[in-house]
User: Fold these one by one.
Assistant:
Number 1:
Amino acid sequence: MHAENSSGLGTDEVRRRHIIVKAVLVGLVAGLIGSAFRLSLEGIEALRIEVVHNFSGWISLPVALALGAVGGGLGVWLVRRFAPHATGSGIPNLQSVLRREAEPEWKRLLPVKFLAGVAGIGGGLALGREGPTVQMGAASGFMVSEWFKVKAGEGERRALMSAGAGAGLAAAFNAPLSGLIFVLEELHGAFTPVMFVAAFLASVTADVVSRLLIGESPVFHFVGLTAPGVASLPWAAVLGVAMGALGVMFNRGLLATIGLRERLLRWPAFAVGAAAGVFVGFVGWTVPGLAGSGGELVQLALSGSIAVGLLPLFLLARFSLTLVSYSSGAAGGIFAPLLVLGALGGLWFGVGVHHFMDGPVAISPQVFCVLGMGALFTAIVRAPLTGIILMIELTGTYGFMLPLLVSCLGAYGVAEAMGNTPIYEALRQRSIHSVELAKAKAAERKAAREGTSHAGS
């Protein structure tokens, strides 16, 4: 039997009964923060679109560019100035914290991540709220652990942070099971009773809070979408292979874009964010709906309301916008952008399948939007269970399970065969390398100064 300390912890692992109240509290806090963030983003994005639409013709272009520049610039500046660990989705930083490679922090992270995310995504950057909500949820878990004076270095603090991360994802998508599976599959890659209990309670609590404050409607609305049958499985496999290749392209393109920006654009933080905002603002002005998180674009794809001829253009545009937006260092995630890419690519593929199978056995093209989102998520993040459960919770249809399994398996196999590192792991490794490189350069400069000093004496 494990020895216990004053907070009710075992030396190796926390006993489940000691974490129940704390996990529920973490879910409550993460649900409130996630809901507030979601409502704030919806409000600021709607305001940006309304302001641009209030101007007619070419006059609206400088307005769109200015809003993008201010939003992007402010978002990147806040991150670099006050909380560099709040950059991007924050999930790689969270993984480093859970592996004890970085120190947890919440007092600056929460306000900076919230405000920077609202500024950048609200200004039109093609980023999502889900990653930031996960990181803020984890920060709320650390905050609650400090309230209860949980000792560092023991299992309970990490369990509460992980539970908060799952709660953040649950609040973002109204998907509590996805939050739970994300914690077990992506953050830890292992199942322990304590982690399961904490993540489950926090995710369910956050989902209840989100539904009470925002509503019980799913994030995406599927009207008249019939689950595909066994006839769809070969096509699901082909789509999975295609999405696997696209996912590898996305991962490599994102890392290359970040590296290119760091080498070529050594500008002040505001200038980097403003440049990204101007680019995104111009594209969004040219084709309304392409900028921002992209939720409306997914909804249009699911309803089949996008012209077939525009799908390749939209797919390429969103691919480019996401790379530029994320590489700027703004606070925003890739969950929503990759779902947009999966929906657009899936619909494009589905239109071709529909024409090929025209007749009584034809499959609705919108079905492949769902399969495309799940497969691309799997290829990029390499978390197939999370992708499958997330799509089922978003559709509310268990009938998608079998084709999702096939498409996600195909995407996973392609990404593994191509030797591609999952995006969050790649970003984590990159961050560690950057820190080590910065320390080495600082040591070299210090040694050079000391050498000069000795020579002078």
Number 2:
Amino acid sequence: MPELAHIDIIAPNFKRRLSGVTATVARLVPLQAQSIAITACAPEMPDEVPNVHWSRLIGMSRKGPSGPRVWHARRNVEMIVGLALRGLLGKRLKLLFTSASQRQHTGLTKALIRRMDAVIATSAKTAEYLERPATVIHHGIDTDTFSPHPDKTALRAELGLPAGPLLGCFGRIRAQKGTDVFVDAMIRVLADHPDAAAIVMGRAVDKDQAFLDDLKARVQSAGLGDRLLFLPEVPVWETPRFYQALDIYVAPQRWEGFGLTPLEAMACGAPAIATRVGAFEELVKDGQTGTLIDAGDVDQMVEAAQALLSDPVKRAQWSEQARAHMIDHFQLKQEADAIIAIYKNLLSD
């Protein structure tokens, strides 16, 4: 547990349940800690992540070793706590906010953002919803962990997955994520490609259980229960192996803030079929590393999947190009270094 007197940067994450923000903090902070004095402030973090309990914030020194500390918020509640620490408790803080939202902000969020010292947007589209200048920094991934597997056939056997061409869709199972669009499209695609299979991997919370049950019923009705599989959510450290087993990844979301899954899949060599939501248009090079389609359009998804399944040469070419694109533009270290540059500017101001 780090000593706050020696810390310049605090990255809070006040949500206990796994989320995109939790994953972002867990990925970035250990890497950034190699070159700057940073800690997370979260209920739970993996052992390798420097982390302090929120209760220690009240008694921490007014300033850090380099002067005012940087408080890097990623949610409203964390902006509010940063403002309270600075305004009510007299802590010397520079407030930084990262926005991933692609919708009109509420009045509260707008008011909070106006009081930040700097703002980061995770995509150009996200920046368009902000009413003040922001630095665009895309999320990155660990391209060593997310990398192609040397023997995809053996890996599928090890994971208990079908041997033929495999398509996948990972994440929360609910209408917003477009899981129903993926299932409806795969029912049609698998009927025309008897050697192919597809997997849905993730979980449905209680309110979405009926949605999931309906999807499973559609698959059974189509007679595809052994080729369109529903797999439970796995721990984050196991997900790279499932990406590595895929030939094609599908991101069918109807709405998304950013969306890391296509990056992780492409880094593992799986071309992505992705909807034009979130940052996907900035991540997927249409016709080179994957295909962009309209959200909710089953016909377009079917056409895109059919085209790749029917052309192994194109699929192999796009696989190589997808991996190269991730290495060139979306490495986690690139994201970490770009954010550290913002930290240093705030610390020296």
Number 3:
Amino acid sequence: MPPGSALGEFESLVVLGVLQAGEDAYGVPVWRAIQERTGRDVSLAAVYKTLDRLESKGLVRSRQGEPTAERGGRAKRLYAVTPGGLDAVRASVQALTQMTAGLDEVLGT
């Protein structure tokens, strides 16, 4: 990943949320994963805006799913993490791990 292209905290959460939601992830399960796993109250709109930004950076890709009757014939936009997105989130996790090394007592972990 080029310097200066590190993921922000919320971008990392959204990429991880896509991974947690699994194959054919869409906005609502990503949003739920973030809320359930972090306890943070985030807006669905913020998740979709971040997914758009991540897609423009090439870190996630999307495709249109099939229309469904329960959605009034509308299709879901389905997301997947790209290899570059996986590299970016790995780098973010690694940086956080390295920065917290030796701070277990201070952080109470």
